[in-house]
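Figure 6 in text form: structure in, sequence out.
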């Protein structure tokens, strides 16, 4: 297949002896014949008699140093607020013993309730039927199930004493002059359901599940190089500066700052059954680490359901209704949060996750919202920036000043409403809810929103749309549609990768979700290359660099500088859309609020820490658990009341689990615990521990998953179960898989492994005999690596499965590609190999087990990434016979999976190309560093 090769390929210099060859083929043959014994050997890996992981890392104190705030330093107190001596243990707590499951009678009863109500969410009628079957099965033995019916189940859940925050309501109504006849919205009352915000925050603060993931003091973190580092909320400038403000009051000295984080977003639970919109308001606190908030570990809590005023078409565009709807929003928020107001001026004593009491000071700190919500919050006109005063028709002009409460109030007093609207974008007759709280400024609370501003905004709504418009302007609609069809075929031809969403029909779907956009971003750039000018490719490349940098788990000063450089390149290259007529000439052409928000990311990261901890994707995910699933469990009639009860019961069960885990009552499985208790009382004689049979019972179908295991750099292990119907003799295996060089390659690998580093043997020595070494074949391996910027466990560990199977899901073969360690001291791709795994296997020699992989090698075709895409390009290596070069490596030299995308070039793909063939038929491939954030950080 045709493919683009960079100009730098003209320099064919051997990396080992620096001899210059005439062409690529000559270089390949030279390396094979002259350096074949060493050119493709990853660093030697120690043989293992079992597949133990390498030594753990990350338990030692962080190499970073912290400067904690000296005044708001969260001094522990007793329950009355009196300071404790340094090092004093938490106050003694009266807790139930390990046999007290109240209100449950046993662990079986608790886990049954949790399974039915939280995990399975079984309908009430099905719960009743299950319990009836359970009762019938136990009647011959005079036994009974944990519950009689769903009513009994709910009664016990409601009796849980933990996690209780009662739902209450108030009604709001229009208070202005009412004309005759009055529109219905003026006479209607609007119900708002909410919880006591102070009680909800109290529950968050006392949750022991957060103990290891909780910051008590604002801090500044520095790397060993001296660079400042931003990650969690309390590492940002906002927390430090607000602590400075509070420190001016002596009563605040020694208190703990508790930043209040809010988020709201309308959601629709069902379109088919009519208008079913809800407006949830969520609350969290900035002390909790970002990874906990992202992992949905109950760090973001449903606080209220806001009212959604509606009216007829005649009134919905009236100024009076628009003002009422906006002011209702702010008035409601002010009332809901009023219970926190006293704690913003005078510290309140609260128990913290570590068990200590502290005097806490609340502060409105951040609000997670998309752009329309930000406009509503900041009382601005649509099209204006809520963070700066740049004109709406020249947003990137750079002459505006940061918005602030003081600036807005000055303008409101100095200018007429019409002038405020036209010159400053301020709606002068509205009052933000933050004006009712001390030290609160709505313009300082708005956080970056990666989902709506960057992923769905700049990428989906801007760049993808603009590229389609460019093609239509340049080629006409008919030809543009043919090119777009080819782009779709290219996207569909992308090779498989764990959890990578496939687009078998390209990107032609009517309704995009955030997940659709995230998935398309990973594969879009190579698909358009060759169909659009280099300037367009570089625009998308610069955007992706910005996006992936901004989405990192933590950022230091160098990363923030890289973010700014990517933004500068994006602004430079995007001009091609004006030059080609896609966008209007002049500053108005790019006066797009969501795209303009990119200019504020540098400042916002320094204020609030990494953006991924304050993204609206967190509230979107919470919609599913707090709104959509509870709605589906209701009978659809007056559903809100049922949804409130469902959420309250879910919170109680979650709080009960935390309490039981804190008392170490949930160790092992419920079966093993029951058997163990029975054995202690002489009731069961069982030779197993109750967990036998569960280990390894899972299948190998999981592509990737999170891991809460201790942090290691990386570790790759073979699948638990060997493949069946494969010969155990290596020569027979070579014939079976049609890889005749396998025995020789394996013998060379073993010879290399057996060499003494201080006295290496001669490569011409006799190769080890593998005749008596049984071989086991595996169809996959599991790679576990530290990837905190990706979906990972609390320790930052991520697991993905690497496939090498002749029949994937009863269809085509699947042989994945991987990164292998080359030189750990070289940065990025210069320290990595790329290979394709044709076989995972292990053999035993001399009593030692060797887990291995048969690898097809790829080489980079230049000494740097491609200038347009920013991705490295590789091509398959050929041996002396023109066949793709293979080698056997130790499994521990595999770092993780890699993803290659063909370099499609300028020609169009045939319609019959399948994604399963892509790694076999193209000349060159991009190393896709955008497949995930970890790849972005290592494949540069």
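Output sequence:
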């Amino acid at each position: 297949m045709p493919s683009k090769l960079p100009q730098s390929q003209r320099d064919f210099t051997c990396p080992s002896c620096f001899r210059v060859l005439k062409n690529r083929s000559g270089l390949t043959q030279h390396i094979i014949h002259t350096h074949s014994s060493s050119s493709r050997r990853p660093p030697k890996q120690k043989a293992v008699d079992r597949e133990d992981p390498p030594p753990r890392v990350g338990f030692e104190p962080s190499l970073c140093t912290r400067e904690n705030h000296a005044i708001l330093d969260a001094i522990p107190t007793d329950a009355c607020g009196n300071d404790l001596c340094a090092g004093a243990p938490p106050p003694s707590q009266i807790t139930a013993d390990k046999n007290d499951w109240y209100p449950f009678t046993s662990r079986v009863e608790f886990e049954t309730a949790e399974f039915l109500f939280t995990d399975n969410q079984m309908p009430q009628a099905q719960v009743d039927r299950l319990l009836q079957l359970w009762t019938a099965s136990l009647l011959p033995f005079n036994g009974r199930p944990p519950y009689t019916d769903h009513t009994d189940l709910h009664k016990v859940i409601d009796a849980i004493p933990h996690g209780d925050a009662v739902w209450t309501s108030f009604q709001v109504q229009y208070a202005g002059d009412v004309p005759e006849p009055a529109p219905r919205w003026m006479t209607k009352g609007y119900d708002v359901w909410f919880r006591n915000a102070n009680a909800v925050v109290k529950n968050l603060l006392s949750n022991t599940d957060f103990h290891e993931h909780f910051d008590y003091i604002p801090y500044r973190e520095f790397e060993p190089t001296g660079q400042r580092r931003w990650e969690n909320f309390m590492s940002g400038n906002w927390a430090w500066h607000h602590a400075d403000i509070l420190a001016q009051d002596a009563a605040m000295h020694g208190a703990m700052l508790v930043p209040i984080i809010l988020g709201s977003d309308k959601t629709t639970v069902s379109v088919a059954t009519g208008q079913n919109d809800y407006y949830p308001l969520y609350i969290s606190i900035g002390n909790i680490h970002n990874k906990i908030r992202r992992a949905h570990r109950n760090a973001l809590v449903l606080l209220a359901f806001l009212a959604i005023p509606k009216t007829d078409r005649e009134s919905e565009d009236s100024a009076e209704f628009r003002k009422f709807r906006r002011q209702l929003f702010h008035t409601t928020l002010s009332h809901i949060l009023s219970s926190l107001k006293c704690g913003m001026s005078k510290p309140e004593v609260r128990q913290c996750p570590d068990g200590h009491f502290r005097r806490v000071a609340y502060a409105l700190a951040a609000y997670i919202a998309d752009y329309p919500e930000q406009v509503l919050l900041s009382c601005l006109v649509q099209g204006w920036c809520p963070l700066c005063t740049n004109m709406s028709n020249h947003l990137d002009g750079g002459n505006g000043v940061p918005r602030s409460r003081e600036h807005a109030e000055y303008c409101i007093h100095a200018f007429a409403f019409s002038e405020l609207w036209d010159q400053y974008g301020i709606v002068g007759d509205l009052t933000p809810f933050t004006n009712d709280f001390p030290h609160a400024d709505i313009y300082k609370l708005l956080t970056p929103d990666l989902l709506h501003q960057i992923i769905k905004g700049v990428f989906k709504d801007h760049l993808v749309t603009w590229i389609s418009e460019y093609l239509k302007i340049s080629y006409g609609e008919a030809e543009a549609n043919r090119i777009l069809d080819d782009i779709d075929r290219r996207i569909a031809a992308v090779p498989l990768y764990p959890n990578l969403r496939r687009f078998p029909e390209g990107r032609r779907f009517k309704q995009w979700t955030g997940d659709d956009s995230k998935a398309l971003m990973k594969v879009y750039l190579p698909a358009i290359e060759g169909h659009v000018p280099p300037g367009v490719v570089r625009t998308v490349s610069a955007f992706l660099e910005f996006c992936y940098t901004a989405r990192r788990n933590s950022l230091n000063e160098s990363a923030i500088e890289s973010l700014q450089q990517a933004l500068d390149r994006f602004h430079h290259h995007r001009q091609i859309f004006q030059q080609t007529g896609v966008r209007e000439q002049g500053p108005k052409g790019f006066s797009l609020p969501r795209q303009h928000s990119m200019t504020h990311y540098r400042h916002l990261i320094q204020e609030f820490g990494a953006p991924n901890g304050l993204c609206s994707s967190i509230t979107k995910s919470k919609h599913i658990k707090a709104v959509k699933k509870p709605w589906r469990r209701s009978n659809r009639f007056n559903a809100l009341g049922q949804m409130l009860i469902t959420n309250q019961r879910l919170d109680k069960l979650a709080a009960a689990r935390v309490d039981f885990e804190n008392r170490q009552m949930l160790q092992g499985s419920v079966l093993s615990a029951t058997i163990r208790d029975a054995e202690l009382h002489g009731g069961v004689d069982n030779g197993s521990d109750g967990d036998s049979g569960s280990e390894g019972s899972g299948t190998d179908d999981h592509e990737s998953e999170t891991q809460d295991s201790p942090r290691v750099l990386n570790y790759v292990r073979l699948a638990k179960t060997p493949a069946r119907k494969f010969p155990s003799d290596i020569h027979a295996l070579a014939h079976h898989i049609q890889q005749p060089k396998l025995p020789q390659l394996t013998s060379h690998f073993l010879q290399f492994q057996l060499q003494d580093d201080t006295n290496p043997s001669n490569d011409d020595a006799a190769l080890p005999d593998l005749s008596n070494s049984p071989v086991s074949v595996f169809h996959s391996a599991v790679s576990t690596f530290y990837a905190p910027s990706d979906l990972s466990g609390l320790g930052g560990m991520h697991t993905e499965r690497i496939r090498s199977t002749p029949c994937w899901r009863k269809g085509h073969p699947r042989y994945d590609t991987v990164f292998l360690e080359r030189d750990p001291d070289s940065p990025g791709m210069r320290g990595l190999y790329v290979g394709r795994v044709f076989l995972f296997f292990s053999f035993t020699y001399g009593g030692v087990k060797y887990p291995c992989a048969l690898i097809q090698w790829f080489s980079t075709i230049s000494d740097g990434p491609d200038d347009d895409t920013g991705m490295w390009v590789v091509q398959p290596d050929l041996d002396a016979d023109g066949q793709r070069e293979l080698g056997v490596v130790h499994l521990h030299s595999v770092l993780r999976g890699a993803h290659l995308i063909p370099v499609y070039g300028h020609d169009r793909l045939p319609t019959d190309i399948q994604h399963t063939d892509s790694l076999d038929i193209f000349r060159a491939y991009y190393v896709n560093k955008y497949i995930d954030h970890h790849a972005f950080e290592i494949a540069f």
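Caption detail: The mean pLDDT is 87.
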